[in-house]
Design a protein that fits this description.
The protein is α/β, with parallel strands linked by helices. The protein has 3 domains: about 40 residues; about 350 residues, TIM Barrel; about 80 residues. Helix content is about 50%, strand content about 10%. Helix 4 runs parallel beside helix 5, helix 12 packs parallel to helix 13 and helix 15 packs antiparallel against helix 18. The protein starts with a helix and ends with a helix. It comes from Panagrolaimus sp. JU765. This is Beta-N-acetylhexosaminidase.
């Protein structure tokens, strides 16, 4: 039976002709503009993608309107930083991220490889066993080029070289032995075998991708200049080293027009020194001023002074993740947006004093090579999209509204504490899982355990130490402990599956080991002790013999 006949028999038989016609038209309109269009939208396939990744790329088909104040408030270059020294994206997920940022206003990417680059020569010994292959990297960078994203490699040249200098065969090249992060820049063998070796392989690999900008790192080179005696001041030594390195970069790429970026924190210490080498440095590098907080250090006077010191552009660097604590799990969206809004404000208020090259939105995965993860990338997707919108010129509420649109969320949630808690976009699903299930366990269920009546009165250190407690309360507590153990097992399985599907190799295992390991260890010890105590039917009388040897040792050492 056709749809038309069914409607006529069931609804139109007893209605006048004109009403029949009106009702039919009304139903057809609802069907066409509602059901049919919804079905077509959900069944769309992205036509730009090749068959290999068409079913893997998160593509919600959203076109965002241009901000009204775009020309005045936007950064010309909006670069997203990918920190690969921890939790590097799998190749297919990397492509998904590239498409996401391209659609939401990014103009380029800054890739910090560290030990994830497929080194084949001297530094092969320092390469991570889970590093990308050349074929994988060519595929990723080729896709970025297809999207017209500027590709900027970031290669550390001064500090943050732990990934090489930690190894015994490279220990001799440290500036001083206790600091495995800083290379001895006055040792030509060290410069050649560590710094130039990394730059040569990475830059030669990137030549086919038309690289015009290179970032040479240069931040947090603590206590340098101690290794070899030099007639130069350490500031002159650093300036000469960096000037020579920029020459090496341009020679390796084969273009004097190559732009060289450098973090500002160490170079700012050189800027006010009077020497010819420092004057040369001012004319050869573009500073990237990083501040992930309130920009309190960088007032109008700072920008005015920088404008007087050279004609080269100065870049800003905000953070969309990885800047609020070395072991943070959940991104503070409000803090990250506030930081990016402050950068937009600083640019607008100071653009008559200095030329801004653009804004780099950093996304640190670890604070340094030795530290733990700080906010995994899939858990920062809403922050990434929101802050790209800020860099495009949207104000605070507009930036969130556009991100809600881009991630297929509910506009009704705009005023919620978390406006992204029920987005439909596939690329936001790990964020939703983390901020609902994982966050609830870590911030509600697990902390709640120590506040239980049974824990506070009958399962303290004292009770566990002297195997002394009340059966009734332990009988209530033990099932609760087992329930939490089962909860951890479930969350770990979910974590392994979700994180393991998008981030490389051992990331999911490291995440679970570091997060759930200590909790599970404590929980299993509690279960073992509680089950041992509950079997006891008779107990010692008080007082107990308290071992205060620890306190005595403290008192003897003078610490007490």
């Amino acid at each position: 039976m056709s749809f038309k006949i069914w409607i006529r028999r069931n609804f139109l038989r007893n209605l006048p002709v004109k009403k029949n016609l009106f009702l039919v038209l009304f139903i057809v309109c609802i069907w066409y503009f509602g059901i049919l269009r919804f079905w077509l939208r959900k069944s769309e396939v992205p036509v730009e993608l090749n068959d290999e990744i068409a079913d893997e790329v998160y593509d919600d088909g959203v076109t965002l309107p241009t901000p009204i104040n775009f020309d005045e408030a936007a950064f010309e270059n909006r670069i997203v930083h990918f920190d690969l020294k921890g939790a590097a994206p799998k190749p297919h997920y990397f492509k998904q991220l590239l498409r996401l940022i391209s659609r939401n206003g990014a103009t380029g990417i800054l890739i910090e490889y560290e030990d994830m680059f497929p080194f084949e020569n001297g530094l092969k010994r320092a390469k991570n066993d889970e590093a990308y292959t050349k074929e994988e990297l060519e595929d990723i960078l080729g896709f970025a080029k297809e999207l017209n994203l500027t590709i900027i490699p970031l290669i550390q040249s001064f500090g943050h070289l732990e990934w090489i200098l930690k190894l015994p065969e490279y220990r001799q090249y440290r500036d001083h032995d206790v600091n495995s992060g800083v290379v001895c820049i006055s040792n030509q063998e060290a410069v050649k075998n560590v710094v130039e070796a990394a730059f040569t392989e990475i830059l030669q690999f990137h030549q086919k991708f038309d690289v015009k900008i290179v970032h040479i790192g240069g931040d947090e080179a603590f206590n340098y200049g101690k290794c070899f005696p030099s007639p130069e001041t350490r500031e002159e030594l650093a300036a000469n080293y960096l000037v020579n390195l920029t020459k090496f970069v341009r020679q390796t790429i084969g273009s004097e027009l190559t732009r060289v970026l450098i973090w500002n924190d160490m170079v700012d210490q050189l800027w006010y020194q009077n020497s010819s080498s420092i004057e040369k440095l001012k004319k050869t590098v573009e500073l990237v001023v990083w501040d992930y907080g309130d920009l309190g250090r960088y007032d109008s006077y700072y920008w005015e002074e920088k404008g007087k010191q050279g004609d080269l552009p100065i870049w800003g660097a905000s953070a969309f993740k990885g800047a609020d604590g070395a072991n943070k799990i959940f991104v503070d969206l409000k803090m990250r947006q506030l930081n990016n809004l402050r950068w937009a404000k600083a640019m607008n208020e100071s653009k008559h004093l200095v030329t801004f090259g653009g804004l780099i939105l950093t996304g640190w995965q670890r604070y340094d090579h030795f530290s733990t993860f700080c906010e995994l990338l899939p858990m920062a997707i809403p922050s990434l999209v929101v802050n790209l919108n800020v860099a495009k010129g949207w104000n605070a509420s507009e930036a969130i509204e556009q991100a809600i649109h881009a991630l297929d969320c509910n506009l009704d949630d705009l005023e919620n504490d978390d406006p992204f808690w029920r987005c439909r976009s596939r690329i936001a699903q790990i964020y939703i899982w983390a901020n609902q299930r994982l966050k609830y366990f870590l911030e509600e269920e697990w902390p709640e355990l120590k506040n239980l009546h049974e824990m506070k009165g009958w399962f303290r250190y004292y009770n566990r130490k002297f195997m002394f407690s009340n059966y009734h309360y332990l009988d209530t507590l033990i099932p609760r402990l087992y329930s939490l153990k089962d909860r951890i097992a479930t969350l770990k399985r979910e974590s392994d599956k979700k994180i393991g599907s998008v981030l490389i190799g051992s990331t999911a295992k490291e995440f679970a080991f570091d997060l759930f390991g200590p909790i599970l260890e404590q929980l299993m010890a509690m279960i073992t002790e509680a089950e041992a105590i509950i079997k006891i039917r008779s107990f010692k009388k008080r007082p107990f013999e308290f071992d205060d040897s620890v306190f005595a040792a403290l008192e003897k050492s003078g610490w007490w």
